[in-house]
Design brief:
Strand order of the largest sheet: 2-3-1-4-5
CATH architecture of the largest domain: 3-Layer(aba) Sandwich
Shape: globular
CATH class of the largest domain: Alpha Beta
Oligomer: single chain
Distance between the termini: 59 Å
Strand content: 15-25%
Radius of gyration: 21 Å
Number of domains: 2
Structural class: alpha/beta
Amino acid sequence: MAEEQKKTNIQKLVIITGLSGAGKTQAVRCLEDLGFFCVDNLPPILIPKFAELFEQAEGKIDKVALVMDIRGGKFFDSLFEALNYLDEKNFKYEILFLEASDETLVRRFKETRRRHPLAPDQRILEGIIEERKRLQELRGRASKIIDTSDMTNRQLREQVAELFGEVKDYKLIITVMSFGFKYGVPLDADLVMDVRFLPNPHYVQELRSFTGHDRRVREFVMNSPVTAAFLDKFIDLLKFLLPYYAKEGKSHLVIAIGCTGGQHRSVAIANRIGQELKGEDFRVSVKHRDILRATGAGC
């Protein structure tokens, strides 16, 4: 009975972690707005006591978010023991891992004039590299990974709300994301498809300045027999794979569609895939990472 009780009282336990400067503060503020009871910088060694405390609350608090990161110093090393405890006691939890590129993190630290917790007297980049190394194993256990390199605070909050807000209990949340290879592959992508083999509107003068949202660009890309054949095969593959991802317990899948600049082909294809995947068991959103900065660039 005790273990059954543990399964029902805390319906959502989210552990927020990741790289310093990647946006954990914004994420936890968003969860607080969503009704989560939030604790920042909790030493992992206290997780068992903390969990017991909430069980005694008799269901009055059912959504909890805990921020645990490298600021915990030596206490942070006990995180895996705490996670094993939660597994043994059948507590359901999710790990949200936030990260960003080295360049982005260095810029953020300089803008805020903060010191990196692992490099108080050294170069910021050295601290970032060391932290990324220490968190590598934890990243591998994460349920959800968000790369905030190209996100505003508002965009991050929107994505966190999308992932953890009170919505229908979907088996799988899918993000279809267009991007430009010239700006790098999205770090949080689960599946990456390169569509640079498709006809390129960039080389058609009257289409170059538009995006894949435009009807003329969309028709140029979609009217190709190669595009039609590709979409039939790729969408069929996705529809085969998605139920198996859901069955294995994956809650969020990022499908990244890339062309050269992220303006034409990847945008049109991502929009089409998003339309095709919408169904009762999946919540699908389509995002275009590079569409604004790609305007005018070849894609």
